[in-house]
C-alpha cells in the first residue's frame, strides 16, 4: 500500500480552484493519503475535508494540528471530527480511531498531540503564539496567567500521549511488526527544526512535545522488534531523526499558500520516497 504524506497544508489560505489543482497533483501514484495536521481552521475543516475526499476518492487518514482548532473550542471540533469519521467512509480522524491494519504486518495509529512546554525555557520566553489567542480553551487559561496556560498545554499533551501509548500497546498485541504513528507536534527537540536549525529555547516550548517523545521511547524500548515510523509537522521544516534503531521520526516541510506532498510511503517496507 502506498500513502502520500501531507502536512501543514493550510488549505483555507487557497481559493477553490487552487485547492482542486492540489488535489489532482497529490492523487497520483498512491492508494491513500495521510495528513499530520494543520489542514484548515475550525470554521472550515469539515468543508475542506469533504471537498478533498470528493476529488481524491481515496481514504484520507488524518490528525488535527493547532491551526485546525483556531476560532473554535477543542471538544466541539473533536465532536465534529468524530461525526465526520462516522458519516464518511473515506475520512478517518485518527484521534477517534482504533489501530487500523493496513496490511498483514503494518498498523496505523495517530493522535493530534500538543506542545507541552517541557523543552526550552517557557518561564522566560517572550514568545506567544496565536494558539493562546485563537483557540478558546487556551485563551481562557491565558487570561488567568501564563502558568495556567502551561498547565492546560500539558494537560492536552499528556492526554494525547497517554492515548497514543494505549494504541501502541494495542497495535503490538494485534501482532504489528511495523507501526506508522501520525501526530502533529515534533516529539523531540532534535525534530523541532526551523530554518535549518533546532528551534531556540524561546520557541521550543511551543514547537515540541516531550511527553510524546518519552512515550515513543518507552514503547520502542519495550518492543524493540517492532519498527516504528512517526510522521509529524508543525514547525514547517523537514527533519529525519533516529533516536533508536527501531524508531524513526520524519518531520515535514511546509510553506503557507504552497502546499506540497512530502512524498510516498510504502507500507510493506516503510520506505519513504520524496
General description of the model:
This protein has a single domain (2-273), classed as 4-Layer Sandwich (Purple Acid Phosphatase, chain A, domain 2), CATH 3.60.21.10. The chain is 35% helix and 21% strand. The chain has 8 helices and 14 strands. The chain has helices spanning 16-26, 45-56, 74-87, 131-134, 136-144, 146-173, 204-207, 210-222, and strands at residues 2-6, 32-36, 60-63, 91-93, 100-101, 106-110, 178-182, 193-194, 197-198, 227-232, 239-244, 247-251, 263-266, 271-273. The chain has a 6-stranded mixed beta sheet with strand order 4-3-2-1-13-14. The protein has a 6-stranded mixed beta sheet with strand order 5-6-7-10-12-11, with helices on one face. β8 (193-194) and β9 form a beta hairpin. α5 (136-144) packs across α6 (146-173). The chain is globular.
Give the helices and strands, then pairings.
Elements: E1 2-6, H1 16-26, E2 32-36, H2 45-56, E3 60-63, H3 74-87, E4 91-93, E5 100-101, E6 106-110, H4 131-134, H5 136-144, H6 146-173, E7 178-182, E8 193-194, E9 197-198, H7 204-207, H8 210-222, E10 227-232, E11 239-244, E12 247-251, E13 263-266, E14 271-273
Parallel strand pairs: 1-2, 2-3, 3-4, 6-7, 7-10, 10-12
Antiparallel strand pairs: 1-13, 5-6, 8-9, 11-12, 13-14
Helix pairs in contact: 5-6, 6-8
